[in-house]
Amino acid sequence: MPPRAAKGHLEMKTLFALLALAAPLALAAEEPVRLDSAPIDPRDVASLQSGARSFVNYCLNCHSAGMMRYHKLLDLGLTEQQVKDNLLFTADKIGELMNVALTRKDAKEWLGTAPPDLSVIARARGPDWLYTYMRSFYRDPESATGWNNMVFDRVAMPHVLWTLSGQQVQVERKFKDMEQAEAIGRQQKNAWKIDVLTPDQAGKDGERFILKTIRTETAGSLSQIDYDIMIRDLVNFMTWMSEPNQVTRKQVGYIVILVLLLLLVLTYLLYKEFWKDVH
Amino acid sequence: MAAAEKQAVTGAGPFNGLLTWIDQRFPLMQTLRSHLTEYYAPKNFNFWYYFGSLALFVLVIQIVTGIFLTMNYKPDASQAFASVEYIMREVPWGWWIRYMHSTGASFFFICVYLHMFRAMLYGSYRKPRELLWIFGMLIFLCLMAEAFFGYLLPWGQMSYWGAQVIVNLFDAIPVIGPDLAIWIRGDFVVSDATLNRFFAYHVIAVPLALLALVVAHLLALHEVGSSNPDGVEIKKSIDPATGRPLDGIPFHPYYTVKDTFGVVAFLIVFSIVVFFAPEAGGYFLEHNNFIPADPLKTPLHIAPVWYFTPYYSILRATTEEFVFWALAPGLAAFALLIIWTVRSSATRIAVGVIAIVLLLGLLTLDAKVWGVVLMGTSVVIFFFLPWLDRSPVRSIRYKGPITKTAIALFVIAFFVLGYLGTESVTAARTLAAQIGTAVYFLFFFLMPWYSRMDKCRPEPQRVTWK
User: Model pTM?
Assistant: First the structure.
């Protein structure tokens, strides 16, 4: 399967160039992070409404969703007044697009890179990536924002939700065999990855497999379960927003296929009737 | 007066008068007869023979949905991406139109590939159908151009960088390459100017050529008559009483009803993708193409859509080592094979000279040039099939084990190359692609020899039927 959008394009290219230069010094072969499966459902309206609220409150200050109209939120079972009262902060009218005041130029100056528009980001990254990414920030004193991310190394975005999630740190554990490391990794509630050392790098003890996970250091205002639910709802909303007609699409699909099946029988009988006399 | 001499149309009930009026001014009934009701097609068409009419059906889908997309799409680098999302979100049923068009592109290639494979299985390109085959190949080239130009229009990252990579291939042509690439793009990089011209090619220039070629393809088909799974000419066995082929049946109504059934079956498969998996796991709509084009961010992994990946694999497989260790010795061996087996001394000398020139080129020019040449050859080589195939029989049914093995290997190589073209490069994958490339070309280049020496069974006199 073609990979999801590769992270961080140019930054990653430079990073790889640096890695190539530093090849003799490189400690470990980095494995991609195992993504958690996002438990989303685009028909769960309550979850979508909750996700919409989180999105508007936390994302829609720096990130735009410039191809999404507020009016489309009515599809989530909200009334016009509810949208106006609870979700319409950066625009005046419900017919407007979800834009932000932050210009690309300012953003580049202040943050180093313009935050991407999020209208269809779920179709580029995939819900699993978003779900894992939002739950994979950890404290990193070496980065500019003080935060790093297991899924997106050296990400420019700071951990905006840290007061909710608390503060995490990265933990490394060494193992002698892959299966053991994977078994422990699978028990993790958050993202994990295993870096593999060459036998030379591992030294005498032979512990070649480094399991990297994150651990909560200080608790946030939400429990981990509540935080996961909040992110689930947010990702659910972003996935819905990336294609607001997706539920309708499938509903129409069932009807179309049903009609076609009926037509298939009729055309088959017609074909057989005509071909009766071909010998 | 000519008008008065024509017979009145009968059998159309209340429309007899109108049809007679038209027929006396336009060759209506004659056209219907010669192309439908009195065009005799072999009665033994099998599953493979659906894909010609299906390809035509997809062409209609693409044109009709394309017209509606054009009404809302903006060929402007600053608006293109958003206008596609506008179609997806705000144009009533726009998502349906767009998914039919994007899915149609892939299904067009599926139908055309199966249609071509049918011709290869049953020797449909053999004399007197060479020109029919050539028109078909020209349609295939147009289709590739159409797909390539169209893929830039959504203006996503893959649109942009895919176009960048392909246009840069022209850069590799010695002497004129760099200027040619700029001329194609209309700029030094893919830009708004490129988008505008690709839009023009996609919505009018190529479709016009495509339609004209489809007409030529059908006229050529109806001139020589359809081949069939047995590869025998139905025109050889004529009913002396009626003058019609004994194994032929009128296209209408027999094949119109059969193909209608085929179209409905096709629509079911097509609709499953359109409604339930329009991205087809990233193969029909690439994930990266949901990120707007950014000339400053080169994606790490650039892959064309699946229908171009076999050729893309061949391009990437052509490394310096491959040119030196496989291509150059292969070329020398091939030249020796021709010189050894061909009697005409003029041909021998010509082959020798061409081989030496090519060998010098292989050892001096950049491998990138030869990658482009091989990729081009991998498509163009199909044109020569009617002359490469020297088998005494047409159909795979009567061909021997060598041809059957060769076709099987070719199909495997095509799929392997196709798969590898979607993946990033590793040493093992490059080696696999190089083996695939070798098999791909050996299938064609050795065909004049193995098709002749193969042990074929005799063709029957009449078509086999149930």
Answer: 0.92
